[in-house]
Amino acid sequence: MHSLGLSSTHPSWFATRSIGQSCENRPILLHFTSRFAAEPGGTLLIGGMHGDERATVLLLLSFMDHLRPGEQSPLPPRLGILPLINPDGYLRNTRANARGVDLNRNFETGWSAASEEPPGAFPLSEPESRALRDCIVTQRPERIVTLHWALGELDADGPQSTSLAEAMWNALTPQQRIPYRLRLSDSRQVSPSTPCPGSLGQWCGEGLRYPDGTAPAIVTLELPHAPHLPRPLSLPEDHLEQLHRAWKRDARAYLKAVEGPVHAMLRAAYGV
Ligand SMILES: [Zn+2]
Predict the structure, then answer these.
(1) What pLDDT is attached to residue 192?
(2) Euclidean distance between CA atoms 51 and 222, whole angstroms
């Protein structure tokens, strides 16, 4: 299904369609349950917005492979999975897309030409961000989880996202919480979420309103820096280089260590 060397057994209750194409005409694939297709709402899981954050893609594919309908709910949940928004970046192992744009700075809300990461010539200048925007405004998911690597946090954008973030946090044991921190954008939080200009989180959390006036809950799930260590209060300047070196050394061990807790959080995200 994926032409990028990604394998997944795709349980038969997932259908697949393309929501659009990348700059270099690679399809952006949505895997979804029939109930997700039949009505608006449900939960949308997103990975691979930054092409070099491979763990986000591989964990969503493994999540699909592990999913089974629960005993109490014989029908699959309303669930859509976009494991790889930025296929060109994945192929190049770059954060940006093929035109050098950081897709997570290319959305409308708070978009800034002065963004530290290249934001594109104008909001939604990139086909990948437009495809994702169209998918969200058409499907109107109630909950969105977008995976990134690797600040070790659950970051909720907008007050409507608090209960989703808390449900995901509560799915973890105290031990599993060690490499993460919880950031809510409401007054109960000591370290509130800092908006990233033009990010998907900022658009969904603050800019987007569905026709009925509601907004989706959105949580950015930043995978851990190191699976078993407490998240450092401040990350070293060569944080990303360190991560890439560790990933090259032993990607399999990293995935094995983070998979269980991540799957538990994703199950909680569609169960709430
Ligand atoms: Zn990222």
Answers:
(1) 47
(2) 14
Please give the helix or strand (H or E) that residue 143 lies within, else none: strand 143-149
**Cα distance between residue 153 and residue 82, in whole Å:** 21
- Indicate the residue type of 84: L
Give residue 9's pLDDT.
60
β-pairing, 27-32 vs 79-82, is antiparallel
Determine the Cα–Cα distance for residues 20 and 134; give it in Å rounded to an integer.
9
Centre of ligand 1 to C-alpha 38, Å, is 31
> What separation in Å is there between the alpha carbon of 88 and the centre of ligand 1?
15
Token pair of 120, please? 């594109």
Question: How far, in Å, from the CA of 96 to the mean position of ligand 1?
Answer: 10
Retrieve residue 104's tokens.
């997570």
Tokens for 51? 């092409």
- 141 contacts: CB under 8 Å, gap ≥ 6: 40, 41, 42, 43, 44, 80, 216
Residue with token string 């998979």: 259
Which domains are present in the chain?
15-271 (3.40.630.10)
Ligand 1 centroid–CA 42 distance in Å is 23
Chain position carrying tokens 């026709």:
211
Identify the pLDDT of residue 5: 62
Per-residue model confidence (pLDDT) at position 232: 80
pLDDT averaged over 10-residue windows placed end to end, the chain, 272 residues: 59 87 98 90 97 97 81 73 98 97 97 95 98 97 97 94 97 96 72 72 95 97 91 84 91 96 94 64
DSSP 3-state of 193: coil
Report yes or no: 205 and 123 within 8 Å, Cβ to Cβ: no
How far apart are the CA of 227 and the centre of ligand 1, in A?
Answer: 17
How far separated are the first and last CA of the chain, in Å rounded? 30
Q: What is the pLDDT of residue 67?
A: 80
